[in-house]
Automatic annotation (TrEMBL):
<comment type="function">
    <text>Catalyzes the hydrolysis of the gamma-glutamyl amide bond of hercynyl-gamma-L-glutamyl-L-cysteine sulfoxide to produce hercynylcysteine sulfoxide, a step in the biosynthesis pathway of ergothioneine.</text>
</comment>
<dbReference type="GO" id="GO:0016740">
    <property type="term" value="F:transferase activity"/>
</dbReference>
<feature type="domain" description="Glutamine amidotransferase type-2">
    <location>
        <begin position="2"/>
        <end position="237"/>
    </location>
</feature>
<dbReference type="InterPro" id="IPR032889">
    <property type="entry name" value="EgtC_Actinobacteria"/>
</dbReference>
<dbReference type="GO" id="GO:0052699">
    <property type="term" value="P:ergothioneine biosynthetic process"/>
</dbReference>
<comment type="pathway">
    <text>Amino-acid biosynthesis; ergothioneine biosynthesis.</text>
</comment>
<keyword id="KW-0315">Glutamine amidotransferase</keyword>
<dbReference type="InterPro" id="IPR029055">
    <property type="entry name" value="Ntn_hydrolases_N"/>
</dbReference>
<keyword id="KW-0378">Hydrolase</keyword>
<dbReference type="Pfam" id="PF13230">
    <property type="entry name" value="GATase_4"/>
</dbReference>
<dbReference type="InterPro" id="IPR017932">
    <property type="entry name" value="GATase_2_dom"/>
</dbReference>
<dbReference type="GO" id="GO:0016811">
    <property type="term" value="F:hydrolase activity, acting on carbon-nitrogen (but not peptide) bonds, in linear amides"/>
</dbReference>
<dbReference type="InterPro" id="IPR017808">
    <property type="entry name" value="EgtC"/>
</dbReference>
<keyword id="KW-0808">Transferase</keyword>
<dbReference type="InterPro" id="IPR026869">
    <property type="entry name" value="EgtC-like"/>
</dbReference>
<protein>
    <recommendedName>
        <fullName>Gamma-glutamyl-hercynylcysteine sulfoxide hydrolase</fullName>
        <ecNumber>3.5.1.118</ecNumber>
    </recommendedName>
</protein>
<dbReference type="InterPro" id="IPR052373">
    <property type="entry name" value="Gamma-glu_amide_hydrolase"/>
</dbReference>
């Protein structure tokens, strides 16, 4: 499973979230602490952030199919990238999935940035021409974009009912909202004075990190954080 991280708050540097922390995504690319599936995340990385310098909130991405730990160009530029809203991930590709930039999170529809930590049987996903890759996560992202992020909880429970082995941990943001689901893997929240971090695992040893229970929807906005249990009882229709 991959590891991902989201930020909503004040403008901060991308390096302060991804590269600098003691156990941030750079370290998680080779030594994750809570990873249940896979040993390390060497199959690429992606950092997406919202840019207010242009008209409105524009999603921008920098992705690579090489390990994050060795990327000296990103290491050099990340301290100069500042944003109020970030979605970043390091990847451990599922067997059979392509290893290239187009299969690397975050995916986008032009408004949202989305990362998927997990696996899903592609046969249960609707056929779509909008996906960025044939990778399961890209097809899942396209499905979620098509149904709208307001329906995220319902979409996840439907897909989980259709594929009981699926692990569906989503992290998505649009510049003013940061949303996530837990379905089969860990997620932690850090409420800082300047914003909120959602991450597959804590990026340091701060005792303020809180674990999100499995099968929950998390919504972060400027006004706070809301957790909602995801109902699995409705089944797939
Ligand atoms: N299934 C996705 C992929 O192949 C995500 C893998 C993961 O979470 N490790 O990229």
């Amino acid at each position: 499973m991959c590891r991902h991280l989201g930020w909503l708050g004040a403008d901060v540097t991308v390096s302060s979230l991804v590269l600098d922390p003691l156990c941030g995504l750079r370290v998680q690319s080779y030594a994750p602490r809570r990873q249940k599936h896979g040993l390390l995340n060497a199959d690429g990385w992606g950092v997406g952030f919202f840019d207010r310098s242009s008209d409105g909130d524009t999603p921008r991405r920098w992705r690579s199919q090489t390990p994050l730990w060795g990327d000296v160009s990103f290491d050099s530029v990340a301290p100069a990238l500042r944003s109020h809203c970030v979605v970043a991930a390091v990847r451990s590709a599922t067997v059979g999935m392509p290893i290239d930039v187009s299969a690397t999170a975050p995916f986008t529809d032009g408004q949202w940035l989305l990362s998927h930590n997990g696996v899903v049987d592609r046969a249960v996903l609707p056929v779509t021409s909008q996906a960025e890759s044939v990778c399961d996560s890209a097809l899942l992202a396209a499905t979620i974009f098509e149904r709208g992020l307001d329906a995220l909880g319902g979409t996840i429970t439907e897909i989980a009912a259709a594929d009981p082995n699926a692990r569906l941990n989503i992290l998505a943001a649009n510049g003013s909202r940061l949303v996530a689901t837990t379905w089969g893997d860990t997620l932690s929240i850090l409420r800082r004075a300047d914003g909120v971090v959602l991450a597959s695992e804590p990026y340091d040893n701060d005792s303020d990190w809180e674990d999100v229970p499995d099968r929950h929807l998390v919504e972060v906005t400027a006004t706070g954080v809301a957790l909602t249990p995801l109902d699995h009882s409705e089944g797939y229709r």
